[in-house]
């Protein structure tokens, strides 16, 4: 019966009950009110329901909660005359259409809105009213996206109460709030979590040629994509080494490497297909950082700096010169004499750097995505000779770690170096003569 939503509704019919009520309404002489024009007093929002209910909302009302506006248009159908919706969640190739006009005030083109089945500009409304956008209420927080390893719970709001129109301002502020949850470590690493998501698409064919299905084993493409691309389900084929997107985006909470400098202790994680930074407090964009002791928002007063020296050990053997305790932070080891020595590192009884008698290549253990990572870097001269070895352990460590050195000659003094730690037993060496300095502040990597 309403003027909005009833244009050319050829597939809609009156029920017997509605027909009887309408006839009664007219027969009792109560229909004079339909002869006058609607009053346009007050704000424009009061008589343009499309400012509150966009096309997606209208699709959900007409076809159910999973429906949304069609992603393509039909030039033979005026934009405001027909409600066109994707009804099936996974089907974006077809539209179901209902021959009813879009609600007045529905945005139909840039700087144009629907009015009585036509897509018009603000000048055609006959009134000069600017509608500034206003936020809806926040939704409730979602459940955590992961059971361990740091998932995400979020809540959202929309700029639809009403939507901005006729030159009005968009809503100010974020439309999403999120925080990390279930942050206890999983048995698997963060890289394993990405690998698991890629491997789940192995049964899904890839059509490189028309009507020809190809199947591959899919593995993470972490070293080949950057920024938000890391979150868009990018995987590489094992062996073939080409990269494609295997879905819309990785699960919220999947780790990534941010393009921007992140505060010490911050976490870069995927959120709705984008690589976002959570502060050390787990809150999206909070900017909070660990101090040099690994305390979130601390002042650096809860830990100590220790140093020592080492000159023992036999030649051609791996000699332990340091054991890093659990919770050690801000560890930086430098070997400036890699022609005569090289470093090795062990976790438990497993070597993660070197250990086979030869110098290691650059590596990050277990991966750049993991919170408790160890980074080993080998620096070369222009002639490609080893110039310096460097080990960085931001910490806090979750398990004890052993640092070893292997000498090629018997007499070589290894000088001392620098470490902040939660444990006073920690002593870290800078091999080969690095000057001892106390760090008063830290950058994103934790070292100068």
TrEMBL record:
PROSITE patterns with a match to the protein in the record: TSP1
Cellular component, GO annotation: extracellular matrix; extracellular region
GO MF annotation terms: metal ion binding; metalloendopeptidase activity
Pfam families: ADAMTS_CR_2 (PF17771), ADAMTS_CR_3 (PF19236), ADAMTS_spacer1 (PF05986), TSP_1 (PF00090)
Chief localization: secreted
Cystine crosslinks: 59-85, 70-95, 80-114, 108-119, 144-181, 148-186, 159-171
Annotated positions binding Ca(2+) 1: 33, 36
Entry binding sites for Ca(2+) 2: 36
Keywords tagged on the record: Calcium, Disulfide bond, Glycoprotein, Hydrolase, Metal-binding, Secreted, Zinc
Manganese is among the record's keywords: no
Protein name: Uncharacterized protein
